[in-house]
Amino acid sequence: MTDTPDPINALLGAGPRRPMPLPPPNERVRLRTEYGLTKAETAKALGVSASSLTAWESGQREPQGEARAAYAKLLEGIAAQLAPAQPASAVPAPVVPEAYAAPAPQPVMLDQNPDGSLLMAPPAPCVRCGNPSVYRAQGHPMHLGGFCRPAASAPAVPAAPVPMAAAPVVQQIAEPALTTAPVPTAVPRRSAPVAGPMAAPRRASSSRPASSSRARKAPAKAAAKAEGPSDWEAAAAARFPAGPLAVLDVAKDGKSLVAYLADGTVAPTAPAGRTLADVVEWALETKLGSPRLHRHGKDGDALVVLTDAALTDLGLPPMGRDEKRDFVQRLGQLPKTHKAVKQVEKAGWQLTQRGLGPWARIFRTPEDGKRVCVQLCIPAWGALTSGGWQIPDGLGAPDLARLLGTYATRVLTPRGSTAVSGLELVTALRPPTRAVRTEAGWTSGPVEGSRPPKGFDPAPPEVPDVHPLAQDRAPADELVTEAWDWFRELTEDEKRTALYGVGLDVNMAFLAAAGRLTLPLGPPVHELNPTFDKRIPGSWLADLSHVATDPLLPSPFTADGSRPTGPAWYSTVKLAYALELGATVQPTEAYLRPEHGPYLDPWHKRLRAAYLDTMAALGVPLDLADRDPLAFLDAMTALKTTGDPAELAVLTAIKQTAKGTIGKMRERPRGHGYKPGERWPALDRPTWDPLMRALVIDTATVNMHRKLRKMAADTGLHAIAVLSDCAVFAAPGPGALDILTKPDGTLTTSLRLGVSPGLVKHEGSRPMAEIAELIADGANPARHMKAGGVVSADE
Predict the structure, then answer these.
(1) What is the pLDDT of residues 498-529, one digit of tens each?
(2) Measured between alpha carbons, how far is residue 4 from residues 9, 10, 15, 273 in Å?
(3) Which has the closest alpha carbon to 739: 756, 763, 758?
(4) Which of 414, 448, 474 represents a domain boundary (last residue)?
(5) Are 731 and 493 in contact (CB under 8 A)?
(6) What whole-number distance in Å separates Cα of residue 323 and Cα of residue 317?
(7) Structural domain for 67, as ranges
(8) Which of 226, 600, 681, 778 has the greatest number of CB atoms lying within 10 Å of its CB?
(9) Is 112 helix (H, G, I), strand (E, B) or coil?
(10) Would 33 be classed as within a structural domain?
(11) Burial of residue 12 (number of CB atoms within 10 Å: 0-12, 13-18, 19+)
(12) Residue whose C-alpha is closest to residue 455's, from 297, 772, 228, 692
């Protein structure tokens, strides 16, 4: 029998393997450039690609194994040769008593999250050098050993070193230099923004006038805001100096590509090659991307928009009908056999299941397991012609970059339709999980106020009819929640005295309803004969047919405004409103959510700020209606004709984002092969929950009913038609003030003019003869109040 070496002894004989320490990423760049080495020759010497070296120098990923050892050796040799010679007259270091002597700095394993990213905390003095560090080692503030900077005022007695034997090791990572806004050497500073039709992207609340309510903010909150972004926000923003996106076009000479950035500038470099793989590599090297919106969230991927000219230059086909040569819209993606797809895969990149389509995602999972990804937006394939996007015709590449960049800064980097972007915004602001450190190591834990990552099934009454839980459900056992579509016959007094029908529209009503709204965070609990509790979200079986409401107004309990006829399922919001109206509520069955919270509140705040910022950019500040109602009405009337088309496109996108997000919470299956009763992918999203949609819509409906009741009490006017958030009134004149003025000459606050979500604007006016004719034909007048068009359900 032939002796074979023992593999265990071989491993033990090789000695322990420890990752070699490396300097911070920006120091790696400095050493290479000062030594005079190019990326290409350095990568070749190390036996890696230039893109891998770029990732090492940008801190996007770390080298491993033999490559790491070689890289560490190279940098150590460069540093030794670049180090200044020690002066002959240097003063020798003072002798320190042995009891107080600090040992030489050793490599430190910094605390990390499970995904490999460094754990960050508020700055505290490093236990070795005294300089502040946002990083931790076994919970103590510390820099990576060997990379501490000289302290401005070193402690009198060196701090005792923290023992690192028990430190959890995932991989050794060098800490980036602590600067407020680092600008990597690899990406030069860009020139100042050029003039354009839109203001450069800015933070959501930068230009909005402060109202009296904002002026009364608590001093603590105001002080926190004045201090600026927190450490994790500053660190996240510093990772993407080039901004969230770029629009790629062909240069005027036709010989190269040019990239326009979100702030209106031109990128200092452009893709050197002419393939999609080259574009992806360039986007990562340029550091396109967007910082996370929550400390436990994820940074946004880079977005590259390809103009029609760039699409052709990169060898991609136009839209057409030939499946072999063109992009066919009904297929949604290029065939996997297309040469463009094969080029991407040959370069080592992958495509998601959506393939190479209008909104494609190209990614790679490097050796350290941290996926890098770039998203493409291809307008020529219909990416920006539907899905809530209304881009002005003939918009040039620089202006398109500023338009999408403005949306990215105020809302989120676009990731598809506005509805998809809205859902992504919810998750970005409420990430499902976070890294939790335990005695056994790192694990994944829930984020307070968020929903679980894979969601949960709602209750049978709440799901649409094709859902698996609805297959044995009787039609009467469904929770029906839709926005109002109601109108009534004119009274004799209205026919005799009114000359016009005047429509008023509630701004962003669904968004306004979502603020601080209590929503489910966990699965339903079934109860029989429960005691109603308005604090618990859920669906309740109850009879509200006895609840009396004004017959000249729609019933708040049904979608068509008719009075309920018997027991039905209602959300918590509807039953709470029945109590408010003085009714007795005795539910016989319920599906309740003991786990609940204001899940959509951060989403509401961000979209509200984005909406108000955009309206201010269009010349309609927050306080205009309070200062001058006529000026507000004039400004809103002139908005569509005199407003900046690009800002108007952003405004539309923000509105559609709010509307689409709520609709996606009850998204039905798509595709021709679906059979009722089968599950579909949307059901596994944490944001898929029909009860959340019902609670938001019901809150908007109840809010509207309160306004209509108060309007009738203040002015004596009753709505004659309602469509979602648009209410029509019979009026003596065509203006909004003709119905908002009370008998004493003051303006009612029941329907208050203003730009803020929840306030109203003038939707349109029609002669009463047209209103009467529409009603006679069985048509809702509220659907036809806009001149030359139809009022949309989200307005």
Answers:
(1) 999 999 999 999 999 999 999 999 999 999 99
(2) 11, 11, 20, 51
(3) 763
(4) 414
(5) no
(6) 10
(7) 25-78
(8) 600
(9) strand
(10) yes
(11) exposed
(12) 692
